[in-house]
Amino acid sequence: MLALWAVLVAFPIVASRPQRGPYKPDWESLDKRLLPPWYDQAKFGIFVHWGVFAVPGFGSEWFWWHWQGNKDPAYVNFMKKNYPPGFSYADFAPEFKAEFFDPEEWADLFRDSGAKYVVLTTKHHEGFTNWGSPSSWNWNSVDVGPHQDLVGELGDAVRKRGMHYGVYHSLFEWFHPLYLSDKKSGFKTQDFVFSKAMPELYDLVTRYKPDVIWSDGDWEAPDSYWNSTQFLAWLYNESPVKDSVVTNDRWGAGCSCKHGGFYNCADKYSPGQLPSHKWEKCTSVDMLSWGHRRNMKLNQLLDLPSIIQDLVQTVSLGGNYLLNVGPSAEGTLAVAFEERLRGVGAWLDLNGDAIYSSQPWRVQNENVTVPIWYTFKDSNVYAIFFTWPSDNTLQLTTPKVSPSTNVTMLGNPGLLKWTPMGQTGLNVILPFPFLTSQAWTLKLQGVA
């Protein structure tokens, strides 16, 4: 109780004092902040959705809401069939034991996937925190369940392997009484914000110094209710990560795809064309859920070719790709998830030069012989294709060739033969079909 009281009295002082630094607590000022370069260079990250929802492991991470919020019959019947009358959602928490959780093993896998950053759910909409949040007494992973600081343990392991570490944090909580009271007032009161949401964000930043703050759960209330601009001004001006942290765009109703750091816009968002602002596509290996499902089927997962194509297309359009896995309540990752991540890593081992630190080219894609997606780095153009031409000849109509043009294939030694198609374009004679690959990359040097 004393710890909670300390948070309640300390936070308003931090939030209301004048901000020191170049950024004012308004969007006009905050939106001028440039993203730290590491984020655009990274291109590929791993998302981890983990919480009490992994215990029922049914439907999705929105289990509690579907069961007791909108009373979905499938969830209601699941509980009636499998749990006794009077069983509450809180009763799941002691079974969230994470007894097989090995942060070193997870971090090894994420590194081997080729990911450059990892984002962990520190708190989803259920309100359970994966660290000992002082404003979440007895509803956190230190007081109940694993009795471990999951956020800190994974963060230490990830950083030891040279990856950046980020925290997902839901602003709202479905059933928190203070939030429901603020909501009933039309968000004219901010009791939940000042006693729960913002103290947790400040605590996460000062305790774990994250490189990414992935905000969510913002859509019901405006950013003025969440006090978002005050927090971001402190984050960018005074926090211990002010020079390295990146944030997304979910800071209040109407902010998405408009304000903040990089844009998510919507889950599994793809713009279809090159946007003018840095963006990120978040998607999940399990196409039906972000969290663990005990009844997951193989045909409900993204296969490896689809993941690699999605990654390539996202990067070609200037985005980052954040691929999600949902661990079990025991702290294990499905073998199918591991297979997908290792497959991405193997592909990036050969083709990473076309992905990491690349930029969108003047043309992002074309489709003549087969669909081709382009990236650009260090005066080199990379052409990535997913289907091997039947006659082993690939037509590229966009590059402007010169006498100094050279063409190679990543992972294959030696120069490839090519002939010009005129002032623009070339025919490339491919060496032989690497039919076991998911996608192939040509490196073009000396093209305009």
UniProtKB/TrEMBL annotation:
One of its GO terms (biological process) is lipid metabolic process. Homotetramer. The record marks C282 as: May be important for catalysis. Residues 364-445 form the Alpha-L-fucosidase C-terminal domain. Keywords: Glycoprotein, Glycosidase, Hydrolase, Lipid metabolism, Lysosome, Signal. Alpha-L-fucosidase is responsible for hydrolyzing the alpha-1,6-linked fucose joined to the reducing-end N-acetylglucosamine of the carbohydrate moieties of glycoproteins. Transmembrane segments: none annotated. SMART domains: Alpha_L_fucos. Its main location: other. GO terms for molecular function: alpha-L-fucosidase activity. Belongs to the glycosyl hydrolase 29 family. The keyword Translocase does not apply. Its EC number is 3.2.1.51. This is Alpha-L-fucosidase. InterPro entries: FUC_metazoa-typ, Fucosidase_C, GH, Glyco_hydro_29, Glyco_hydro_29_CS, Glyco_hydro_29_N, Glyco_hydro_b. It comes from Erpetoichthys calabaricus. Residues 1-16 form the signal peptide. It catalyses: an alpha-L-fucoside + H2O = L-fucose + an alcohol; a neolactoside IV(2)-alpha-Fuc-nLc4Cer(d18:0) + H2O = a neolactoside nLc4Cer(d18:0) + L-fucose; a neolactoside IV(2)-alpha-Fuc-nLc4Cer(d18:1(4E)) + H2O = a neolactoside nLc4Cer(d18:1(4E)) + L-fucose. GO terms for cellular component: lysosome. The gene is FUCA1. Pfam families: Alpha_L_fucos (PF01120), Fucosidase_C (PF16757). It is found in: Lysosome. Residues 16-353 form the Glycoside hydrolase family 29 N-terminal domain. It is an enzyme of class 3 (hydrolase).
